[in-house]
């Protein structure tokens, strides 16, 4: 009997079993449900309030003159809500106006630094020096030069938050991906076309990072300005309440400053999502 070859032996034994396909998990951006977006911050707020109440009302490890209980702060707000909201409106307006002014000037300065190596080398050390100066030290000088009211407050907001915007704009415009820059050159795009179609869209995520860093700094600048030159606003209210030992009113104003900052920050986040819809689709948080 002739010996069967290997293919014939395999045919006689039957077809070889095929390996089962291994399912490959799909990797994509993690989607958050609307319920989680609302419940998780609320849970964090409740935890913070619980710790605050525990430290001040149950354990009493913090003196009420330093941090009054939540009930006392709530009572202070409930006693004059219109007064608090009026001061909060003034601080919000100063924060937004100063932020918009610093954003416009910061983006223009960043564009200039990114477009000219000479300007970058000339003025970057000066910008770093201006940013390093403690802004609170400039308060008396601003009052002497601009008087009392909103002008020194807006100037303080501008000085405190424009540097991150300048830095993020210049960094974003000078770090265009090499493949996109090469694509623009291969298509014979003009300098303006390359800027408008490639460099600016690629830099927008970095610019928004600077804007999100600057937004809380704008609120801080507004409060510092109101401490020294304000005639209204939450910072002015804190100074007035602290002068008479009314810490509950001062803490109510401080909490309103935090809530205002959270609201403005998430408005900016929503603006980023509408302006840059491709960012969420092309990136993943793992």
Automatic annotation (TrEMBL):
CDD domains: TM_PBP2. This is ABC transporter permease. Residues 16-26 have a biased composition (Pro residues). It comes from Streptomyces chartreusis. One of its GO terms (cellular component) is plasma membrane. The keyword Membrane applies. The chain crosses the membrane at residues 35-55, 96-114, 126-146, 153-173, 250-271. GO terms for biological process: transmembrane transport. Gene3D superfamilies: MetI-like.
């Amino acid at each position: 009997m002739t010996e069967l070859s290997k293919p014939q032996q395999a045919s006689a034994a039957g077809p070889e079993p095929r390996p089962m396909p291994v399912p490959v998990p799909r990797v994509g951006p993690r989607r958050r449900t609307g319920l989680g977006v609302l419940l998780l911050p609320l849970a964090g707020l409740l935890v913070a309030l619980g710790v605050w109440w525990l430290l001040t009302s149950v354990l009493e490890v913090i003196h009420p003159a330093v941090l009054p209980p939540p009930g006392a702060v709530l009572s202070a707000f409930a006693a004059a809500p219109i007064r608090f909201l009026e001061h909060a409106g003034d601080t919000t307006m100063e924060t937004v106006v100063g932020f918009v002014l610093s954003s416009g000037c910061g983006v223009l300065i960043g564009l200039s630094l990114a477009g000219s190596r000479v300007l970058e080398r000339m003025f970057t050390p000066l910008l770093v020096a201006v940013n390093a100066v403690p802004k609170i030290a400039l308060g008396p000088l601003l009052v002497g030069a601009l008087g009392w009211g909103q002008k020194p407050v807006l100037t303080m907001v501008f000085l405190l938050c424009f540097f991150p915007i300048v830095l993020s704009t210049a960094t974003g415009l000078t770090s265009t991906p090499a493949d996109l820059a090469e694509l623009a050159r291969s298509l014979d795009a003009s300098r303006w076309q390359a800027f408008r179609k490639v460099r600016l869209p690629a830099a927008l995520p970095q610019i928004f990072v600077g804007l999100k860093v600057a937004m809380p700094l704008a609120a801080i600048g507004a409060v510092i300005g109101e401490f020294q030159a304000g005639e209204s606003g939450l910072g002015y209210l804190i100074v007035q309440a602290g002068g008479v030992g009314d810490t509950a009113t001062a803490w109510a104003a401080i909490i309103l400053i935090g809530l205002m900052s959270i609201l403005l920050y998430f408005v900016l986040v929503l603006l980023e999502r509408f302006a840059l819809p491709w960012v969420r689709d092309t990136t993943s948080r793992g």
